[in-house]
UniProtKB/TrEMBL annotation:
InterPro entries per the UniProt record, alphabetical: Transcription_regulator (IPR053170), YdjM-like (IPR007404)
Organism, as annotated: Grimontia celer
Top-level division of the source organism's lineage: Bacteria
The protein, known as: Inner membrane protein YbcI
Keyword Acetylation annotated: no
The entry's keywords: Membrane, Transmembrane, Transmembrane helix
Coiled coil (residue ranges): none
Transmembrane segments: 57-75, 87-103, 123-148, 155-177
């Protein structure tokens, strides 16, 4: 999630655990500590793909955060908060640090909760990376806690309760969408194929669906407010890695994205794109991985991340209308080239 959400979560957790000891200093400390795991963004692993894959790695691991919280508690007890019970400091530091990656795991990007074990990142993908409906109900009680100090802990608890209920709702919503997608692909050649489902920006009502299909993929939007549960699919070329051997970096990239990768020739460049993040033809994580040199020979190059460009202004109201159930504007949410709607039954 974004830094504001993580800071608000850290402050609320700290305030609740502190109880009667809650104060503005505790809230500020919780807010700061709640953003600490994201400091790994300053690390450079050598190329943009590695930076993407290894972000939310060791600094988000439960195997790292639990002992780190214990060390912080002992340190803080000795030098800054001698009047606090050690158990309470440990509970506060642990809760603030651990809730950060747990919240991140609800997003699409993926969080390596069990680093260094060789397990896939946890990516529930039930909330967008920025969601005001999660953050605002959490942020307002935290800000109020700075004013009504005698009720600070209770206010923090209220904020956490509301935000947690919203996360629970997101799990219900994605479950409804999963059932709808299964009904849509049942009896077609896409039945049993890998499926990605994720929320569109800033909400848990309108959902984006991607289904892999050999050298192409099918993308569609479905809203919980749709009167007709039928999904209009947009088939797009997925491409494939055509070289004799695949670099380990791209194998890691495919594992990180769970196979939702598009390879596409763009002029003299070959790009690899994470299909989970973005929508239609707008994807923020697209990388040049090979170039065509003299004699039309392809050569691997150090990855370079492409600028996805700005979001088209007309797509913002179109997204809102689509959220409200206006299925007729699906095509507006797709850049017109290489993108068209289709019916699975005809394939």
């Amino acid at each position: 999630m974004d830094s504001i959400s993580q800071a608000a979560l850290g402050a609320a957790v700290a305030g609740l655990v502190a109880g009667k000891r809650c104060s503005p200093k505790v809230l500020l400390a919780g807010a700061a500590l709640g953003t600490v795991p994201d400091l790994d963004v300053v690390l450079d692993y050598g190329d943009p793909i590695s930076n993407m894959i290894k972000h939310r790695g060791f600094s988000h691991s439960l195997f790292v955060l639990f002992p780190f919280a214990a060390v912080l508690a002992v340190f803080w007890k000795r030098f800054f908060a001698k009047e606090w019970p050690l158990w309470q400091l440990w509970a506060l530091f642990t809760a603030v640090l651990v809730t950060h990656p747990i919240l991140d795991s609800f997003t699409t990007y993926g969080t390596q909760l069990l680093w260094p074990l060789d397990t896939p990142p946890v990516a529930i993908s039930s909330v967008f990376i920025i969601d005001p409906l999660y953050t605002i109900p959490l942020l307002i009680p935290v800000l109020a806690a700075f004013i009504w100090r005698s009720r600070a802990a209770k206010l923090c608890g209220v904020g956490l309760a509301i935000s947690t209920l919203y996360l629970a709702w997101s799990l219900v919503a994605i479950g409804v969408v999963k059932d709808r997608v299964e009904e849509n692909v049942a009896g077609t050649h896409l039945e049993g194929q890998p499926v990605f489902i994720g929320p569109t920006p800033f909400n848990t009502v309108l959902w984006r669906v991607v289904v892999l299909d050999d050298n192409k993929y099918w993308e569609g939007l479905t809203s919980l407010l749709d009167e007709d549960p039928t999904i209009d699919w947009m088939p797009m070329v997925r491409g494939d890695w055509t070289f004799p051997s695949k670099p380990e970096l791209l194998t890691d990239f495919e594992n990180f994205t769970r196979g939702f990768v598009r390879y596409e020739q763009d002029g003299d460049a070959l790009t690899a794109t994470d299909l989970r993040l973005g929508m239609a033809m707008y994807h923020p994580f697209s990388f040049v991985v090979a170039e065509q040199g003299e004699n039309q020979v392809w050569q691997l190059v150090p990855p370079v991340q492409l600028d996805p460009g700005p979001v088209l202004p007309r797509q913002i109201p179109a997204l809102w209308m689509r959220l409200l159930g206006w299925q007729s504007i699906d095509a507006m949410l797709c850049n017109e080239h290489d993108c068209f709607r289709d019916d699975l039954s005809s394939n």
